[in-house]
Amino acid sequence: MFTTADFLQYTQWSGIATLGFAALAALAFILKWGIRFRLVGTTGFMLVLTAGLFALSLVPLSRTVIPGALKYTLVYDNGSTQTVIATSPKISPSQLEATLRQAASNLYSYGRLGSRGDNYLTVRARTLIHPEPGVSIPLYLGQVKRTLTQREDPEMAVEIYPEKFAQLPKPTA
């Protein structure tokens, strides 16, 4: 995976190429070459590319890894304060807590807006159970609330619903 330092290096090379294309476009206008307008377009594209690479060099692209967390799938996200993730029905309460913490950290974004004055992101975890063939029931196993005002939230409120774990199918031997 690329790091921010890699993107900064790519930005420098792209900036040098942009300056080269700009100089070539200027020369094309002075000498009235037929491709002068194409070179202007190429220079504009290189400017946009350089700006994008520079933006990627500012924002960290890393994901949080919490020991004990399992894979999850994002099922719902309103882009604001509510998300739902799906987990395996074979998850334990300790694994669910780690998975909720990891999801809350990975789903945090500066672009999320609190609605109605609620500045908390709520991530709910659910799984599907099948009490009989052809019937699926979503079962919410827990949730975590984290603040939207700061990246690192030491006071994440994790709730695990033990009564819901009792409804999960027992593993067969």
Automatic annotation (TrEMBL):
The chain crosses the membrane at residues 12-31, 43-61. The keyword Transmembrane helix applies. Pfam families: DUF2518. InterPro entries: Uncharacterised_Ycf51. Keywords: Membrane, Transmembrane, Transmembrane helix. This is Ycf51 family protein.
